[in-house]
Amino acid sequence: MYVVILVSKGCRSLKAILAESSGWRRVLMFSREVEDVAREVARELRGDMVIIKVGDLTEENLLKIYTKYPPRLVLNCDCSSTFNHYIELVRASGVKEVNYCLDGK
After folding, report:
1. Residue 23 zone, left/alpha/beta (φ > 0; ψ -120 to 50; rest)
2. How far apart are alpha carbons 31 and 82 in whole angstroms?
3. Is 25 domain-assigned?
4. pLDDT at 20 over 90
5. Is a pLDDT exceeding 90 seen at residue 105?
6. Phi, psi for residue 88 in degrees, rounded to 5
7. What CA–CA distance (Å, rounded) separates 105 from 6?
8. Beta bridge mates, 5
9. Contacts of 51 (CB under 8 A, 6+ apart)
10. Which string of DSSP letters, residue by residue, matches 69-99?
């Protein structure tokens, strides 16, 4: 099981992300548009993580990623709603999501 971090320009509270994901393998997912932000987040988080630059945001491709890296927790910094299909999967399966855009963390 993984802690999945959806990266966007909303990833401000890296201290909170570190605390939430401590002790778990991390998956850092981002789209091409925020590659610079993702690099900064990866540098701050350090340690064991899978980094996925998602070019194909179709429901089918996001389902493959969801299946390959099953989340126990999703830390959602995706304020631009790029990963809507992924979040729908997360919510439908009952996996806990912390939304850093809506929760104001």
Report:
1. left
2. 8
3. yes
4. no
5. no
6. -60, -40
7. 15
8. 28, 75
9. 27, 28, 38, 42
10. S-EEEEEE--TT-TTHHHHHHHHHHT-EEEE
* CA–CA distance, 21 with 37 (Å, rounded to integer): 18
- Residue 73 structure tokens: 């927790």
Q: How many CB atoms lie within 10 A of CB 59?
A: 11
State the CATH number of the domain containing residue 12.
3.40.50.720
For residue range 21-70, list pLDDT tens digits in order. Answer: 888 999 999 998 889 988 988 988 888 899 999 999 899 999 999 999 99
Give the pLDDT score at 15: 81
> How many structural domains comprise the chain?
1
Q: Is residue 105 part of a domain?
A: no
Helix or strand holding residue 77 (H, E): none
Burial of 1 (0-12, 13-18, 19+ CB in 10 A): exposed
Rg (CA), the chain: 12
* Structural domain includes residue 28: yes
Please check whether residue 103 lies inside any domain of the structure: no
| Domain range enclosing 88 | 2-94
Distance separating alpha carbons of residues 102 and 98, to the nearest angstrom: 9
